């Protein structure tokens, strides 16, 4: 697929920009297992892009390629118009790509506020040495970090639990704190690995609303893996469908819903 240069406006009035990330002919193997076979797709600025497919289809592997956790044996990752050399996950994070995990990865003994603050590490420029030399600069930075974190805590409506240790929170709220921490990094692209997994209907509705609001308010591009089809079809601008490591569909929710290969492989059968 070629990078898209034109912006367009969605039915609900959001502007989707040109291609910001492009996966070109990605193949990823684990020993003899091919987790991803020759997959290409793009992600446009400001869009909500879903990756779906049955268990073992290769979705998490693909998210891990985007986040730099896995380096594919073949293919190229293009980001903001440049081919990305193999890099470590922290370097990918420095380029403005943040993620949440399928299994929540928070510091259980720390408060919500402190957990969200850890998302700011990328913005904390002053090391100990420069902090000692330029106390004023470090203080200014600290204030800016706090302001951003407070803004996100307000936005995601978790003020009431800001001093609560994360370990004491119910599952749905932990997921929201994880989203807050990822947002604290002010990412250009946010990767969400099954953001609704294990949630009840009400929690899913809340999380859907927050994802849409984040996209709308901060203009964050979002790529997500999700099993709940209702959620995927409601939230996403475009959907990539994977099956056995291959791409079998790519398009708007309506397009993939009506794609016979997708119906056969995925939508026609029951899923968790
Ligand atoms: N670290 C690994 N080592 C070996 N094989 C792996 C590894 N990670 C994934 N695989 C294999 O690659 C394939 C794709 O797995 P992946 O987890 O990406 O699929 P998925 O679509 O995310 O599945 P699920 O929906 O169950 O999370 C599977 O066959 C899996 O067993």
Automatic annotation (TrEMBL):
GO-annotated cellular components: plasma membrane
**InterPro entries in the record:** AAA+_ATPase (IPR003593), ABC_AA/LPS_Transport (IPR051120), ABC_transporter-like_ATP-bd (IPR003439), BCA_ABC_TP_C (IPR032823), P-loop_NTPase (IPR027417)
Q: Does the keyword ATP-binding apply?
A: yes
Q: Which GO terms describe its molecular function?
A: ATP binding; ATP hydrolysis activity
Q: Mind telling me which Gene3D superfamilies this protein's record contains? A: P-loop containing nucleotide triphosphate hydrolases (3.40.50.300)
* Keyword Methyltransferase in annotation: no
- Provide the ABC transporter domain boundaries: 21-269
Q: Which domain of life is it from?
A: Bacteria
The membrane spanning regions, by residue number, are none
Q: What SUPFAM superfamilies does this protein map onto? A: P-loop containing nucleoside triphosphate hydrolases (SSF52540)
Keywords from UniProt, A to Z, are:
ATP-binding, Nucleotide-binding, Transport
Question: PANTHER family from the entry?
Answer: ABC TRANSPORTER ATP-BINDING PROTEIN, CONSERVED COMPONENT OF ABC TRANSPORTER FOR NATURAL AMINO ACIDS-RELATED
This chain's protein is named: Amino acid/amide ABC transporter ATP-binding protein 1, HAAT family
